[in-house]
Design a protein that fits this description.
The complex is a heterodimer of chains A (about 300) and B (about 250). With about 300 residues, chain A is of the alpha/beta class. In chain A, about 35% of the residues lie in helices and about 25% in strands. Chain A has two domains: about 210 residues, Rossmann fold; about 60 residues, Alpha-Beta Plaits, CATH 3.30.70.100. In chain A, helix 2 packs across helix 3. The radius of gyration of chain A is 24 Å and the shape is elongated. Chain B has about 250 residues and is mainly alpha-helical. In chain B, helix 1 packs across helix 6 and helix 2 runs parallel beside helix 6. Chain B is globular. The chains are: A alpha/beta (about 300), B mainly alpha (about 250). Chains A and B meet through helix 2 of A and helix 1 and helix 5 of B.
Chain lengths: ~300, ~250
């Protein structure tokens, strides 16, 4: 399969510490790739390497099927906002974006205005970026990352420090750009619930190791809502459930039954089981959040390499 | 690289740093010219005043401020990610610094000359300068200036601190480094570690930048050119290495 961006066993070592350990990611065109991990998991290091800001100790990566040495002339197709938006506080939003545009060889004076309009910053006029709120700075950083009509935009913790309104704005902007312009996004965040609303693919990284790459569909399947049922006789309970019309259920160890349909019928299930002489010891509706899934995957304490 | 340079120049003229440094230089240049006494001074004083280090100081501080601000604001990440070749970024900064130095020298001379003309104490009746020697002198000052600026640029990149870059620029331009090296020479001689006829200050660019004038002997000027070139080549080579190898 052709990937717009992929890494192959990327490793970054600082002294004896592995910040990244043989990380491989695979991103297709049009994906919104959510890179999940706690602080210090290696998300930023990975993004810094694929942005060309840091060198990998070993391993390789390719963007548009080309390795970094062959990327000449293609750099403008990758927009980057890593760590903090690199903006000059004594320059206006227009001037900041224009500087980036000039570096990309874009001389059209209207382009910065169009980019600012895209991120809802066209009203700032002569106000210098130093007087902007955190959310406005973040949006300015995004406008700069979007200069040059990139095909891929790398955003490192884009919602960090934003108020709820700012978070919604950024989320809507990413979704809009992805749907309307087909821009592929790579977004890192430790605010998992927020990422779960935007990303189409997730890369879960822990202590520098890529634990899992999973599509949002598969993740939904894994996290999907279910009725958790425990009875004193699982096999009899299954017969009753089938008589009631339930087909999508799974019998787990220790007599646990997970039912993935007709979630509103918990009352009926209890009644029917009782009528058939089956004792219900537990029944509830469970729905795993991305956060729960992540914790389950990497361990309760976020995983500890030394443990 | 032209795109990065165009972007750097645009930024240079849209930031306050340049104007603050230039205003300071203009004020100092004016007062130096207006309050100076030129009764018995030959006319080449005006030209050799460039060796007073003031334009150089302004250019180095501006350079240091511009480069370190880029690291501090994180702006360099925007450029590095698109520039492809990191050396383009360095050479763009070096070219901007060269333009800044030329701008500083020219504006200093203009303001200084203007101030001297309106200075009632100045005697400027004879202006019989040899133009070719003036250009040779300014050329040397530019070379010496660039070697100091490239050194400051290197330290600014290494430290990523505006304070360190400016302090080094200030120490070099205001003769603090020269004084320290003179003291070191004296101590080394006293301990008989180096011989009496060795002068460590002969290996400093600032020695030549401040002492060379329109009437300096050729071998002294040649030494100055060689020392400046050595400083320039070493600091440029090290800076290239730093920007190429180090993570941003």
């Amino acid at each position: 399969m052709d990937y717009i961006l992929s890494t192959n066993n990327l490793t970054k070592r600082y002294g004896k510490q592995n910040a990244l350990d043989n990380v491989s990611i695979h991103i297709k065109k049009g994906d919104i790739y959510g890179l999940i991990g706690k602080n210090g998991a290696g998300k930023t290091t990975l993004l810094r390497i694929i942005s060309g800001l840091a060198a990998a100790t070993s391993g390789e990566y390719s963007i548009f099927g080309k390795n970094p040495q062959e990327m000449k002339g293609l750099q403008s197709r990758v927009g980057v906002l890593v760590e903090n938006p690199g903006i000059y506080p004594d320059m206006t939003a227009y001037q900041n974006v224009r500087t980036k545009c000039l570096a990309l060889g874009i001389r059209d004076k209207n382009v910065p205005n169009e980019l600012l309009k895209l991120v809802n910053l066209s009203y700032t006029g002569k106000k210098t970026a130093g007087k902007f709120s955190l959310g406005m700075r973040q949006r300015l950083g995004m406008a700069m990352a979007l200069a040059g009509n990139p095909d891929i935009v790398i955003l490192d913790e884009p919602i960090n420090g934003l108020d709820p309104e700012g978070i919604i704005e950024v989320r809507e902007m990413i979704t809009k750009l992805n749907h309307e312009l087909g821009i592929t996004f790579i977004i890192s965040s430790h605010i998992l619930e927020e990422l779960s609303k935007t990303a189409t693919v997730f890369g879960i990284i822990n202590n520098g190791v890529m634990v899992e790459e999973i599509s949002s569909e598969k993740l939904s399947e894994k996290c999907e809502s279910r009725i958790e049922l425990i009875t004193d006789d699982a096999s009899k309970a299954c017969t009753v459930l089938e008589e009631m019309g339930f087909t999508n259920y799974k019998v787990l160890e220790n007599g646990f039954i997970n039912i993935y349909e007709q979630l509103e019928r918990t009352g009926d299930i209890t009644m029917e089981l009782a009528l058939n002489g089956i004792k219900t010891t537990h029944i509830s509706i469970a729905n795993k959040t991305l956060e729960e899934y992540y914790v389950e995957l990497v361990g309760g304490n976020g995983g500890n390499r030394n443990a | 690289m032209l795109n990065v340079l165009r972007s750097d120049i645009y930024r240079l003229f849209h930031r306050k740093t340049l104007y603050i440094v230039l205003i300071c230089m203009v004020v100092f240049a004016f007062f130096a010219g207006f309050l100076g006494s030129f009764d018995d001074t030959p006319t080449d004083t005006i030209i050799t005043s460039i060796g007073s280090s003031l334009p150089l100081l302004c250019a180095t501080i501006a350079t240091s401020a511009i480069v370190t601000a880029e690291y501090k604001n994180g702006y360099i990440k925007n450029t590095v990610s698109i520039a492809g070749n990191r050396l383009h970024i360095y050479f763009s900064k070096l070219i901007v610094s060269a333009l800044l130095l030329i701008f500083a020298i020219v504006s200093f001379l203009d303001i200084y000359l203007l101030a001297v003309i309106i200075n009632p104490k100045a005697n400027l009746l004879v202006l019989n300068l040899d133009i070719s020697s003036v250009f040779a002198y300014l050329g040397f000052q530019f070379l010496a200036g660039m070697s100091i600026i490239s050194l400051v640029l290197l330290f600014a990149m290494l430290s990523r601190s505006n304070v360190v870059g400016c302090l080094i620029g200030f120490s070099i331009c205001m003769g603090i480094v020269n004084s320290s090296v003179s003291l070191l020479t004296y101590l080394l001689k006293a301990k008989e570690i180096i011989s009496e006829n060795v002068e460590l200050t002969d290996y400093l660019v600032t020695t030549y930048a401040t002492q060379i004038n329109l009437n300096s002997a050729t071998d002294f000027v040649t030494r100055g050119v060689i020392v400046s070139l050595v400083y320039l080549v070493i600091s440029v080579a090290l800076s290239m290495l730093v920007i190429k190898k180090r993570d941003i």
